[in-house]
Amino acid sequence: MFVKIEGTGSFLPERVVDNFEIATKVDTSDEWIQTRTGVKTRHIAGEKDTVASMATEAARRAVRDAGISPEEIDMIIVSTVSAEQTLPCVACEVQKALDARSASAFDVNSACSGFITGYQIAAGQMKAGLIRTALVIGSECLSENVDWTDRGTCILFGDGAGATILRADCRPEEIQIPAVLHADGSKGHVLTCSVGHGKDKVPFADYYQMDGREIFKFAVKKVPEVIGEILEKSGQEVDEIDYFILHQANRRIIESIAKRLHQDESKFPMNIMDNGNISSACIPMLLDQLRREGRLEPGTKLVIAGFGAGLTWGGFYLEW
Ligand code: COA
After folding, report:
1. What single DSSP character describes residue 311?
2. Ligand 1 atom 29: residue of nearest CA
3. Is the Cβ–Cβ distance between 11 and 61 less than 8 Å?
């Protein structure tokens, strides 16, 4: 009775940048980065990789995995904060590349909560009986907007895309969406970037500026709270959940959330070590990885939660 994820796919650029290479650009070390963030390597887009090209490749793999034809897709949602252009939207470029003629297409920007937001929009459309099949993608080329002289941010981010095919396994009126979304715009200043919108009109620089400590505190407080809300809505107990799929911002954030929930860390899969923080792409990429590893079986209980710039946070419960 849920909106299920029937196919997953992901794309990572070829070029891998490890912490030792970062340490040749800024005053840092592999040891500091690993200890404070968990990140060992990240993938950085090549000349031909764009937000749209990465989204399209991840989408092709998800479509193949779901065993559907692109013509069956009714809606394409791309979550991104790093599109190279404002118009046309990335989702329309994906629609064109896949030749998904029946699909509507639009982008969402709620930063690292973007995949969560996209899922909830698509699920709501399914419950309203307006669509049957959705393609929800997170695609990011964050390296373009990183200040490579700022050791407080450049150590964290990477590029890539993750895609999912969503379908309900029941009639629209039977669909349950145990989900929540929150925002606190009054804290927007803790993570900013003005790329593409005329920097003289807004008070932000054209690269990511971040108060890392504030975001850290926000995440370890709000994510356990939002997980509590999701559990209440789904009628599940925390111990019944098989995996907590969280946005991959910092290994220590995830460890601290696991501790607050009194759950074993093995229930919190991570890919931050290999990929860094890829904003809205982290969660669909992690789902794709778990699926390929055979760790998601029918009935596996998941709580999926994201948080990030805006500030925004939220999540949902899903049985695989
Ligand atoms: N290498 C070495 N030293 C560094 C460093 C780096 N890359 N970055 C910061 N430092 C230094 C600081 O200058 C500071 O030095 P000081 O004590 O002499 O002033 C010291 O390390 C501690 O800095 P602090 O900012 O308190 O470190 P931290 O433990 O909070 O780690 C982050 C910094 C950015 C890794 C961490 O705050 C974080 O991950 N926050 C969340 C960010 C996030 O998730 N953003 C995306 C949102 S979705």
Report:
1. T
2. 36
3. yes
Which residue's alpha carbon is nearest to atom 11 within ligand 1?
Answer: 152
Q: In whole angstroms, what is the distance from residue 79 CA to residue 7 CA?
A: 17
Atom 32 in ligand 1: residue holding the nearest Cα = 212
Q: 71-125, pLDDT tens digit by residue? A: 999 999 999 999 998 899 999 999 999 999 999 999 999 999 999 999 999 999 9
Q: How far is the CA of 148 from the centre of ligand 1 (A)?
A: 15
Distance between CA 206 and CA 198 in Å, rounded? 9
pTM over 0.85: yes
Amino acid at 188: G
- What do you get for the CA distance between the two ends of the chain, in Å? 11
In tens, the pLDDT along 183-231 reads 999 999 999 988 655 556 666 677 888 999 999 999 999 999 999 999 9
Residue whose structure tokens are 């969402």: 108
Is 241 strand, coil or helix?
coil
Cβ–ligand 1 distance for 112 under 6 Å, the answer yes
Bridge partner list, 318: 302
Collapsed DSSP state (helix, strand, coil) of residue 98? helix
Q: Are 306 and 314 in contact (CB under 8 A)?
A: yes
The dihedral sign for the CA sequence 74, 298, 314, 198 = negative
Q: Is the CB of 190 under 6 A from ligand 1?
A: no
